[in-house]
Amino acid sequence: MAKGGNKTIKVNYLARVEGEGALTVRFRSGQVEDLQLKIFEPPRFFEAFLRGRSALEVADITARICGICPIAYQMSAVYAVEQALGVTVEDPVALLRRLLYCGEWIESHALHVYMLHAPDYLGYPDVVAMAKDYQREVERGLAIKKAGNAIVAILGGREIHPINVRVGGFYRLPLRKELDSLLELLHHALDAACDGVRWVSAFTFTQAKAPPELVALQPIQSAVDYPMCEGRIISSSGINADVADFERTFEEIQVPYSNALHSIVKGGGSYLTGPLARFHLHQSKLTPRALNLISECGSHQVDLNKYNPSHSIIIRSLEIVHALDTAIAAIKSYEVPAEACKKFELKSGTGMAATEAPRGLLYHRYCLDADGRILDAKIVPPTSQNQRAIEDELRIILAGKSAMPKADLSQICEQAIRNHDPCISCATHFLKLNVLDLDGLSGVEGSAT
Amino acid sequence: MNKNHLIIGIGNIYRGDDGAGLLAARALKARPNAPLDCIDIQESDGSAFALMELWRDRNHVVIIDAMNLDGKKVGDLLLFDGLRSLLPLDQLRVSTHAFGLQEAIALSASLGALPKQLTVIAIIGADFGMKEGLSPAVATAVQHWVQEFPAGLKATLSDIGPTNQRSEDARNVTDEQLNQPGQSYC
Fold first, then answer.
1. What is the ipTM of this complex?
2. Domains observed in chain A
């Protein structure tokens, strides 16, 4: 028997991730025999109760999917419905949406970097313990998050589950002075974010890994932009697909141990979306300030060109800098559009859109009837897409480690999962429901999501 | 506005009795009453960072929130000293995400950013299902608390003493506590 023998590692409740999940790893003869990232948070049936609702409601309904990334849901939803209705928003409105999305990246990434992830690298059980020794750094994280929240509050109407986004534009345009009032806060946050990159790049990292297939959007409108609000889907192994072909390129499969579907490349295997994918596919498109910080990372012997999931804390920190730079530029260049919302008529059609949520690519599809009622909806969140890639990565990480104490293995697994900042609450909108009609002995199988 | 004294109503009005804290804060704010003019009253969904931002640089903070606690009568009001960590915080209906009141208190303590006094008033609820409106007993409790708040001001916005008791009935604060030397609340 190989050293380590048979062993089962159970992390019954993953800490410092959004939602409820668990991990089970079975070793046999020192090898990983089985590994299951279990998402047991109950399904929430969002796709099901979108059916029959007006397409005009998608922004407000889908915003409720997640308290951390509601903007991502709103953006993918309105762009998909607008595609179905043949609506194209004006450039200033698109700019405001990008600004709003920047706010979400900033607050979400700041939460993860400073409150959830940094304790892993510094040997603390959580941010409360870490804050006793790293008060300045935690305060920095709070200041950055506050800046992101401020953007969302002004453009979205409130910080959590914003209410100002609508199909065709916004309900209310911000006043020039409201946006200007953000600038000082954003500049302070930008300074803090740059210090944050320098801080995390001095952490100790694990060895580089062989990269999974990396998938991200590639902006069409501006080839020089880092992906966020639109684009084609590209991958490190050569996928180059229109968003309309998402479901012909990827497929969702059910696994018995998880309430979230797994996504794989059709005819292929797992893939990864999110900051690591965006960075490795589009690194050169970060703002000059963020690119300069990458050079500084080299002084800590950190080579960001090599795929290393433990570098994700640096990459998120760089994306915070990028988002703050982008937000400041957007505010400075903003010109009030002629109208808050484009006029349009409801009609039948199908629209698909994908945007880059903080945790990765978020795909929405809506089929509408002639009155604009939703006949069918499909939502594929990033955590659902990343689950299998996370499992594959854990198998690689755990190879040869079966002899380690269980507590150490658990810590390694949890940290590896947190590298990808899974949002389990988002992922569990999916349940393949089998209803057996015992009288008629007929089975009804459907995607009751 | 940065008044020293702050009342935060926490809750979700779409989850039945969970809305008690929010509705109490709204009712208190709507009530024309001179002593309350010098107290800031805010609403919160209970997320840790929002709470920390609200109570940063405040001296005295009162939080009112709904609680689901076995063995307690629906509509009872319990008074806790939030700085002594004796709260059954897992019973408070706060953020759906990982950071709530418990984390806000702990993190503020680590950062040295706690108010000097943090009082938590918990209203025992019965129904936290997805609906609007309070249970009758909870609605009555909120109404009484709002009406009686000025009388209990000294008890809730001054040092409630070196008690280590887990909780005290907020409607039965002792005369001794009520008669403690008053402070300027403005």
1. 0.79
2. 49-382 (1.10.645.10)
